[in-house]
DNA sequence: TTGTACGCGTTATCAT
DNA sequence: ATGATAACGCGTACAA
């Protein structure tokens, strides 16, 4: 260190009393080594003698040094940040898949930048741009519908991209999910197989829910010859919407008896509650099938028949795929279908 | 631009086919201006002539340039990142308060780095360190219990800190929440006021829930002279746990009739369902009071009496406090108590 | 085992 | 209105 350096250091310290950030250089100075040695001590302690390692640790302890990951990211061109976009952070459907994703990635040293996109693809596009500016090392997207501009900037970023919660023939990169069309169709076959000949649906407005609903209706009609009544709404699914859905079907559409396929368990629960409030028996008068197999579905009274998707496995699979990518392993199957499973319970 | 610059550009392009990151310098070159001018055009367009602004926009469009926020953060010492720590990202109690927090912060140009801490303060400490290394401009913490090391590094970081979802006499910095002790006590007074003389509790193991429970029991006993039975568990609250809780109270503790205060609405709902499954009437035989006023509480059958906390307002207040801080406004009240409100419904 | 020199892609500070 | 130049704090050669 030159004399002028020392002086400038002293003056700058004197000038700015408020919380001067501790740097590796400062730690090194205190430990009597250079900045690089501190860097090495932190990234690979085996490359540093035990004696200097001890001094450096002391200096870190004394100064309360916290490495600056921003500078590290700029220098190494790796942010150790994964950006994840979900439709809603208050919807357990998505957060329960982000949770294991997060855990696996953190074990590998990554942090998750999580944002909610809402409904519109245009909003997603803006969020993708905002996230890309932080130079994430990979990105997780929910769903397969993205604007062309979004796809373009994603490809331009040159990072791994996982699309989850659906399947497609044309993924941007990696893909982990299941077929919503097949799910709806399977429920129709399940319901018809149980002998139901009248059916209705209660659905939220999101695109994947509608695909399940349509697949259900088409298949059910093909099997029974009967039209499927439907009650749709735009807002977020809730017990209230489920109750309103059944009321709508009964009061407005003249639905009398049969099975009702709901786009989520919470809606199904609402339908069950409304039925009971009206003195209708479940499943004798009205049978109910939900979607998602959330925690409560098995414990309502009666328990709700539903479609189980292993969201934890999905999140883990998405993370594993990324980790392999980072390790330079070529993935033989960039498209992973984790499937689904109908849980046959008392509500149907 | 010199001739050698051009050559080096050409060769570097030829050398590295895979996604050479577009820089401001590259955009400037294409637009015939310097890198600084591009920076200005982006941060404050009014400082650039309309003609060059047009050229720069063209160049950005043509190259697909995405600004590097990492470099920006390093240079400006502002990451425009807010780190938020919640006990669980799958628990709507917390995410519903993060949602408006997130929205307000994003409107002000900030992004949220969200992580879940789980139960242990030690885990929180590690997460805080990890987050601080990303140099967030502020941090949101859930709860008031932090390790001394955590408090130290937080203070050392010199950034605004908001602690939410509780109150304390000794905040690190800002604080937005309500008193869990007062909440429990109020429920006891409410229940005793309704004439209940026997009571029990069903509680999850988190520290704040236990504080509510204890305050309830103490006050109820003081008012009625009767001991309050309790059933506690460690796992996350669920319908299943609520059902098990009532079973436990009845089968193991001999609870016959009275009011049950649950640490969350989901538990209360479980208690209601188990009561109904046992042929008990709610509230005639067993009255139920929940906590949180989640969406479904008003729509179960019967609707659940509960304690409403305006989580959205809480998240917004926390964000507003930070925004004011960033604007240099001195906050007259660093401690904000948003209170709570008992929702008197059919279950009690 | 340790150090020197340089670059990462911006913003901030002066000039012009 | 625009440009040169110096930070920002760290990793990555390369050298010793």
Automatic annotation (TrEMBL), chains A, B:
Gene3D superfamilies, from UniProt? Answer: 3.40.50.2300, lambda repressor-like DNA-binding domains (1.10.260.40)
InterPro entries found in the cross-reference section: Cro/C1-type_HTH, HTH_LacI, LacI/GalR-like_sensor, Lambda_DNA-bd_dom_sf, Peripla_BP_I
Q: Does the keyword Transcription apply?
A: yes
Which GO molecular-function terms appear in the entry?
DNA binding
- Alphabetically list the UniProt keywords: DNA-binding, Transcription, Transcription regulation
Is DNA-binding one of the keywords?
A: yes
Domain HTH cro/C1-type, chain residue ranges per copy: 23-66
The record's Pfam families line, in alphabetical order, gives: LacI, Peripla_BP_3
Against SUPFAM superfamilies, the record matches this protein to: lambda repressor-like DNA-binding domains (SSF47413), Periplasmic binding protein-like I (SSF53822)
Residues annotated as domain HTH lacI-type: 22-76
- Database matches in PANTHER family: LACI-RELATED TRANSCRIPTIONAL REPRESSOR, TRANSCRIPTIONAL REGULATOR
- The protein here is known as LacI family DNA-binding transcriptional regulator
What organism, scientifically named, is this protein from?
A: Roseibium algae
